Amino acid sequence: MKRIFIIACTLIIIFSLLPGGINIQSTSAYARSDYYEPPLCLPGMPDDGTCLLLGPAQVVAELKASGFTYPPRGLPAATPPSELGIMPVFIAQVNVPEDQPAPIYANLNDAIAGANPDSYIAAGRMRYVSYNERWDDDQGKTYVHLTSGGWTRASPAAYPKFQGLEFYENPKNDFGWVIEESESYVSPSFNAKTTGITYAKYSQIQVYDSVEAEGYVWYQIAPGEWVSSHKARVVNLRFNPPEGVDANRWIELDLFQKTIMAYEDGRLLFATLTTPGIEPFYTKPGVFTIYEKKAIADMYGSFEADRSDYYFFQDVPWQMYYDEARAIHTAYWHTFFGHEGSHGCVNLSPGDAQWMFLWANEGDYVWVHDPSGRTPTDPNLYGPGAP
Question: What SS3 string covers the chain?
Fold first, then answer.
């Protein structure tokens, strides 16, 4: 071994003494710098020629080109405190047949016996009362003591818990909610395959693209996922005051999307679903100002000559009147926000109504519009409005 070492050292010394020293030229292809391809790009790396835009990096680049972020970007928003949805009163639905007046009795014994009624709530399709005490008999009948006095038969009602979104910075793209449980489609067509992904009612969605097809607007909510305006409502962002609004804060009501938003200083502060007027009781388009706020008050009336559509809603909280009898207010008697359904007023869930009531001031602007053009704009077609 020692001999081999001595021979190797001798050879190195001899070669080093040759002119030019050691200059070993490899003929191997692996030593050529032009043999190797550039490395694969990591997701998010720029396409500047220093790497190959293939595989995951190509997918991420294609997503970015289509407006999608990687990883997906959430909305800069949160649901307001659930305490905003706590009603200041207990609510019950009158369970007397709608074609009969509902008797009110001076005391519980008379109510149980059905004798000596003091007064009546008129017959009507929708009658709700507020109460501070209830009594259930052994036959399943419930009697409530009204906040206005007297007892009547009524069933305690569960009011809606849906709430919108409060924003801490402006979102980068439109967003909205699915209003009925539905599957998404792989392309904007009812004839396309469904994705197998089901969205529950009131699921939040973000919108990256939209097209019109088959009589609906279609929204791209994820790569290869589309939902139609038949099952979704979207907030189309508009950060600048509309024509006629000469202030830095305003409420926007989009009648086509059935959404309502609060803006201030070019910022979106709040957005949610609403229930505006149904034909022929449209919610009137225009620019208005809130002229009166009521923390709680009764709402009742009818439109038909025979009063068959009479409604009675006792102690409706958080009302803001902006156009004759049209108001933004709580609707504790239904859960179909995102659909038309009122007599012209703007219905909100309790939590959303209180958020709006606490934020808005008398004198604030309310901009009501229908981008689809389906809502009549002639003011002569409108009455005073109602819930």
Answer: CHHHHHHHHHHHHHHHHCCCCCCCCCCCHHHCCCCCCCCECCCCCCCCCCCECCCHHHHHHHHHHCCCCCCCCCCCEECCCHHHHCCCCEEEEECCCCCCCEEEECCHHHHHHCCCEEEEECCCCEEEEEEEEEEECCCCCEEEEECCCCEEEEEECCCCCCCCEEECCCCCCCEEEECCCEEEECCCCCCCCEEEEEECCCCEEECCEEEEECCEEEEEEECCEEEECCCEEEECCCCCCCCCCCCCEEEEEECCCCEEEEEECCEEEEEEECECECCCCCCCCEEEECCEEEEEEEEEECCCCCCCCCEEEEEEEEEEEEECCEEEEECCCCCCCCCCCECECEEECHHHHHHHHHHCCCCCEEEEECCCCCCCCCHHHCCCCEC
